[in-house]
């Protein structure tokens, strides 16, 4: 939920009995500290800080030039001068500076996407007292994470919005759905399993719990909350979305992620071999996204969403969290 999450959203979730999270892949250590400070100014509840663990390859100049040429007609149509575009923020992998921030800020939980950081950094996080979670998209990844000391596994199904957490798997077309993945991971590992992907209401929560999940992780449902930093265009697209309205695409960042299909996704992707390696593709796409939103159109906007979006409704985050927990409890008692 990078770019859409807020301290207010995380605080409301934690106050209602959930685990509030802050996305940190786009933030500098100073920005992480500011976000945590804003959270703690209004909440003493538990907090998760989420980081990415990708390999940060240098820019491939040839691939970047080809990508710029591919996007040039869109720049021209939107009146963007590529020479005047400031550098865009890119997703950074967890490193020494981020780890130092964790050691100073001491969140209760730290979670990772795309595997784990190098062993020395991982051990420093554990020594800080944080419980460590990480995403797995198949059983092999779950076993790999358990063997390296993760306290719980997030089983991310194909329905999930945003980036695929795959790091040993390579083909997004082979990603398993949440309800098939969760029981297989539960059977394979000895640590708690958290279900993620396509869960938008209490029925999904109860189903995941019946399949052995110790907890669930929701993202898309919280994009509908007023505490989230979601533009009116994005919120409207979410509210009008059908279950078949999302696709896996790499055109925004270079890595497959599930989002709402729009003109840019359909014309350039959804999955394209012309896209530079993650995360560098986003640097040239960012101006298109900004110009599109300023023009009042979502044609070039990045709008991550899971397949469960049609199940979601606009509600304050605390009210949503409490209602989901209570309704799921009733369903589970019934069965």
Task: Outline the secondary-structure elements.
Layout: H1 7-15, E1 20-23, H2 29-42, E2 47-52, H3 61-77, H4 96-105, E3 109-113, H5 119-127, E4 131-136, H6 139-147, E5 152-156, E6 162-163, H7 178-188, E7 193-196, H8 202-210, E8 215-217, H9 220-223, H10 232-239, E9 246-249, E10 257-260, H11 263-268, H12 281-294, H13 317-334
Parallel strand pairs: 1-2, 2-3, 3-4, 4-5, 5-7, 7-8
Antiparallel strand pairs: 6-10, 9-10
β content, as a range?
5-15%
Number of domains: 2
CATH homology-level superfamily of the largest domain: Aldolase class I
- Biggest sheet architecture: 7 strands, parallel
Shape: globular
Number of strands: 10
What is the CATH fold-level name of the largest domain? TIM Barrel
Relative helix content: 40-55%
| Order of helix and strand elements from N to C terminus | HEHEHHEHEHEEHEHEHHEEHHH
Describe the model.
The protein has 335 residues and is of the alpha/beta class. It folds into two domains: 1-54 and 91-230 and 312-335, TIM Barrel, CATH 3.20.20; 58-89 and 242-304, no CATH class. It has 13 helices and ten strands. Helix 3 (61-77) packs parallel to helix 12 (281-294) and helix 8 (202-210) packs across helix 13.
Summarize the model shown.
It contains 13 helices and 10 strands.
């Amino acid at each position: 939920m990078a770019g859409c999450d807020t301290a207010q959203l995380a605080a409301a979730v934690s106050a209602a009995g959930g685990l509030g999270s802050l996305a940190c892949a786009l933030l500098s250590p100073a920005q992480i500290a500011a976000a945590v400070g804003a959270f703690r100014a209004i909440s003493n509840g538990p907090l998760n800080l989420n980081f990415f663990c990708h390999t940060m390859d240098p820019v491939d100049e040839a691939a970047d030039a080809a990508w710029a040429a591919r996007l040039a007609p869109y720049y021209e149509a939107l009146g963007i001068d590529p020479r005047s575009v400031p550098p865009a923020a890119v997703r950074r992998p967890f490193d020494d500076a981020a780890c130092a921030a964790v050691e100073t800020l001491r969140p209760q939980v730290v979670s990772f996407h795309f595997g784990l950081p190098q062993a020395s950094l991982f051990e420093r996080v554990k020594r800080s007292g944080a419980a460590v979670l990480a995403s797995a998209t198949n059983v092999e990844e779950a076993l790999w994470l358990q063997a390296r000391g993760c306290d719980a596994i997030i089983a991310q199904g194909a329905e999930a919005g945003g980036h695929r957490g795959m790091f040993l798997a390579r083909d997004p077309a082979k990603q398993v759905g949440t309800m098939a993945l969760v029981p297989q991971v539960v059977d394979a590992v000895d640590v708690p399993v958290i279900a993620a992907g396509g869960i938008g209401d209490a029925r999904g929560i109860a189903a995941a719990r019946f399949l052995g999940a110790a907890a669930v992780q929701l993202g898309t449902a919280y994009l509908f909350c007023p505490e989230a930093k979601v533009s009116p265009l994005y919120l409207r697209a979410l509210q009008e979305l059908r279950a078949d309205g999302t696709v896996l695409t790499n055109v925004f960042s270079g890595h497959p992620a599930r989002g709402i299909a729009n003109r840019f996704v359909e014309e350039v992707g959804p999955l394209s071999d012309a896209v530079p390696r993650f995360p560098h593709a986003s640097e040239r796409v960012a101006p298109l996204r900004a110009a599109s939103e300023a023009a009042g159109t979502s044609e070039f906007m990045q709008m991550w969403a899971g397949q469960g979006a049609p199940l979601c409704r606009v509600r304050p985050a605390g009210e949503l969290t409490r209602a989901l927990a209570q309704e799921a409890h009733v369903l589970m008692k019934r069965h």
